């Protein structure tokens, strides 16, 4: 055997064995279907990349191949990969420069960030010459070579931790009721340009099957009091722009109030004719989500709230009928006692109720989150993420009981 053929054999064993879905995906009623009209249920994990370094977290802890293997082996078939508009509009930034700039942007020490960068290069040598966009490409491709699809999520405009009502990323600057606290970074035109840029780029990375237009849109005081006209107008423009740049991707749209409230589409459907057969809704639900208070101390009442504010879009035969992805939910992974499967009482009650709701409707989901730590968050270097499913070293489950707590959410139990 020549050295070349040996090499080819080794390479061949690393290449995709099966591509599990026939792409592109499309929708029919409340279902996501592949190109063969087989139902695809998205079972995703969030992986943050929207913060100051402009690249997906954790590459100083593990190689991309290790992480892609781990994700695929746990049974996730999709990653909700977050990015900022700052990244979308600066694809050629070198990773080394991005880490140095992240120090200034976050207020952390430059030496500490350069140290992280050097660790990241040790784990992932291609970073030495890569741009931040190359890193997104490598992540998406590594996932897809294992059959794991990517949902690209525009999380923020300004690369930073998210989300509250004063972080400047909450609501469009061109919309009614501008105030700097909520809108100073959310430049409408940049947002549209950034979405288009990412959509166009994704045409050369087949694993990107969906794009969400904006994470957790959240109106401040008066901003939502115009009949949500701005939401209809701007979400519509973005959906059309993404579809024009990349007609293959699903277009994922969240409601207002931080992706918890779609009630307004009951009476007036969003015009989705610009992305036919591609529309998907998203919702978020945490134990602390104010839209879903557990006032009566009963799971049944919370399930009614989930349905009334967002889950109703799964009712078939309505103008608003479309698939729904619960694109963020999660619990503290280090909060509780062993008897509680490692959860606090509040998280345990919340998760068992939400999992029951999701088992009932068999909808798509994405847990928050993969990352066991952040390069830097709120100025703290190597910030521990207690909600990360991975431990601080990114080597395995932080709470090994967590996957079983999702019960039948892992299974496909319904279909067209
Ligand atoms: C899709 O259908 C074609 C034709 O029947 C078949 O060859 C192919 O294997 C199918 N792909 C998947 C992913 O099911
Ligand atoms: C809102 O978020 C920003 C960005 O993470 C943070 O700097 C700020 O302190 C937060 N504000 C409040 C009131 O928590």
UniProtKB/TrEMBL annotation:
Keywords: Glycosidase, Hydrolase, Signal
Name listed for the protein in its UniProt record: Glycoside hydrolase family 5 protein
First and last residue of the signal peptide: 1-20
Keyword Phosphoprotein: no
Nucleotide-binding found in the keyword field: no
PANTHER family (alphabetical): CELLULASE FAMILY PROTEIN (AFU_ORTHOLOGUE AFUA_5G14560) (PTHR31263:SF0)
Record GO terms (molecular function): hydrolase activity, hydrolyzing O-glycosyl compounds
Organism: Coniochaeta ligniaria NRRL 30616
């Amino acid at each position: 055997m020549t050295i070349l053929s040996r090499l080819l054999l080794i390479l061949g064993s690393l290449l995709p064995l099966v591509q599990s879905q026939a792409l592109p995906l499309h929708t029919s009623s409340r279902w996501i279907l592949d190109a063969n009209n087989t139902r695809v249920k998205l079972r995703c994990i969030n992986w943050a990349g929207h913060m100051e370094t402009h690249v997906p977290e954790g590459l100083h802890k593990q190689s991309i191949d290790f992480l892609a293997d781990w994700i695929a082996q746990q049974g996730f078939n999709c990653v909700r990969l977050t990015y900022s508009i700052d990244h979308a509009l600066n694809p050629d930034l070198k990773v080394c420069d991005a880490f140095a700039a992240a120090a200034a942007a976050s207020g952390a020490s430059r030496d500490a960030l350069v140290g992280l960068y050097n660790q990241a290069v040790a784990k992932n040598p291609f970073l030495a010459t890569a741009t931040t966009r190359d890193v997104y490409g490598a992540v998406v491709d590594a996932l897809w070579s294992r059959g794991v699809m990517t949902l690209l999520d525009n999380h923020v405009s300004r690369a930073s931790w998210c989300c509250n009502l004063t972080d400047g990323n909450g609501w469009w600057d061109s919309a009614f009721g501008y105030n700097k606290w909520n809108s100073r970074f959310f430049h409408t035109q940049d947002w549209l340009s950034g979405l288009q840029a990412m959509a166009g780029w994704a045409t050369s990375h087949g694993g990107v099957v969906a794009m969400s237009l904006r994470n957790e849109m959240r109106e401040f005081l008066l901003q939502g009091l115009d009949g949500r006209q701005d939401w209809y107008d701007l979400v519509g423009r973005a959906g059309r722009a993404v579809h024009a740049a990349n007609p293959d991707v699903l277009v994922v749209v969240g409601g207002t109030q931080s992706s918890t409230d779609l009630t307004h589409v009951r009476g007036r459907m969003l015009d989705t004719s610009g992305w036919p057969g591609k529309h998907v809704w998203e919702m978020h639900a945490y134990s602390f989500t104010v839209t879903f208070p557990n006032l009566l101390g009963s799971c049944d009442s919370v399930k009614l709230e989930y349905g009334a504010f967002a889950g109703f879009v799964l009712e078939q035969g309505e103008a608003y009928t479309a698939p729904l992805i619960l694109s963020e939910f999660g619990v503290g992974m280090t909060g509780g006692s062993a008897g509680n499967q490692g959860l606090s009482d509040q998280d345990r009650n919340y998760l068992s109720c939400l999992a029951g709701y999701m088992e009932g409707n068999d909808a798509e989901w994405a847990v928050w989150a993969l990352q066991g730590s952040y390069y830097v968050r709120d100025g703290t270097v190597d910030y521990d993420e207690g909600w990360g499913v991975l431990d601080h070293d990114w080597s395995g489950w932080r709470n090994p009981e967590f996957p079983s707590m999702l019960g039948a959410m892992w299974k496909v139990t319904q279909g067209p």
